[in-house]
């Protein structure tokens, strides 16, 4: 093409001098014939040799001009090719965006040169194309930028909104009285009438709003983040004509990070036990892909107050330590009134005064340490947990309360405060997580284990941390949690998952003998506990709290301390649209949930005779649907 243009240009210049020679004798349009006749004899008289020798200086000048023109054309052609290559690369990058600008349809500016000047026309045309291509190349990212999700720049910081709108539902074959989130230990045994009916709930309460603020102070990057949903309840919340559930904080923290890999963050955030995508950092946490906001049995997590210090040692190893908000979870039976560790919520102190579980009078926060390794294939974590517990103990009320045998200091009464003291103990454990990308960006296999004493609260099923001994002192319960995950990403539009997990609380049981000398069970999971009423349905009850006119009943006594909770779940997400306007997706989830209790034989405290050993079991099938629009 370049050679053709050069030859055409040369031909044009070759013709131009001859035309220039004749045009010099032209005086008017009516004289061309006479001019031709007068010039013919001169040509004959002069001869052929002289006629050819005259233009030699002009020929040298023309060749120089042609050479310069060729160089110019070569330069402009190379520039045009470079611009075209850049345009092709830009088009490939933007191909993934459904709202991309079509380069082929971009307008081109037509610039015309003066008529009759072929050389100038070619030059201007090439320059016009180069200018047009350059303008299109520069304009397209600007158009794309206008379509992309953009932060709001305000007083030197970037403000980025986020979140999603969710329309979701859940169906359970056995009613639990839950919304979209599942009480994973709340499955009813067969003695509850709830186990004989199903339930369906429709909700938008998992809809989420978030706001992130980023700024820089010299070499320090500062980030603030708030995230909320509507899975909170107030005293007046209800599910009637206008659902009045309250906004709650999921996260609310600030972070400062330095270029040397050191960072600190504080506020309400995900615990260090939560798996991270890479390294250890806020907003890098990975949650299971499930719809259920209680996630899945065996998943380790907590969202509470935390103050965290992180140091990235290199590109592969990161370490962190944090102090986090504590709370004692307790299950115990056969206990006396010789201890306490919770206090009622004080409305004036901004606690919930109707919370029947109370608030732990904590002595100190939990302490966690974590190391994360990213060797280039996979992600690996190890975490340690230290959790302190404390209660107030009254020795004169210790079981059994036999007035005749009370120490003199008790004054003959089991309700004496003589010898009362504060008792403290410490629980703790470790956790391990490995995420293996079996097929890069297509198949992930994840294994998680966590075990120790008094750390049940750090896993989804929320098994108890502690129980109590007959003397009123707290005893941490040994627990374990495990989870296996398989996640498939066959295309950018589909995510498929299958999870299986379990949680376990060990027997932490004690025996004392009553006044008749018969053994009495105490603590958690005792084989002497009464499970005789776990299998027969109970009659409806009247006057039940928050139930009118009657509520589901349960039959007899069913201690039912949980030994294991197991869950298997499968599901998928389909992205209907994902681009600069946000993301539209829908998903389905199915879960099979099982709860198995420690066996109890109902040993009579009056006769000491044991009944049949019964280990109750409860199951549930749960189906979830979700339709979400994520903000850009």
What is the strand and helix layout of this fold?
Elements: H1 2-23, H2 32-46, H3 48-53, H4 56-94, H5 118-147, E1 152-154, E2 157-172, E3 199-203, E4 208-217, E5 220-232, E6 246-258, E7 262-270, E8 303-312, E9 317-324, E10 339-340, E11 342-343, E12 359-360, E13 366-373, E14 379-393, E15 421-439, E16 443-453, E17 466-468, E18 474-476, E19 478-491, E20 494-505, E21 508-513, E22 519-524, E23 541-542, E24 550-551, E25 562-579, E26 582-597, E27 617-630
Antiparallel strand pairs: 1-2, 2-3, 2-4, 2-27, 4-5, 5-6, 6-7, 7-8, 8-9, 9-13, 10-14, 11-12, 13-14, 14-15, 15-16, 16-19, 17-18, 19-20, 20-25, 21-22, 23-24, 25-26, 26-27
Describe it for me?
- By secondary structure, the protein is of the alpha+beta class.
- The strands form five sheets. A 16-stranded antiparallel beta barrel has the order 2-4-5-6-7-8-9-13-14-15-16-19-20-25-26-27. It has a two-stranded antiparallel sheet with strand order 11-12. It has a two-stranded antiparallel ribbon with strand order 17-18.
- The chain contains five helices and 27 strands.
- It has two domains: 146 residues, no CATH class; 479 residues, Porin (Beta Barrel).
- 27% of the residues are buried.
- Helix 1 runs antiparallel to helix 4 and helix 4 runs parallel beside helix 5.
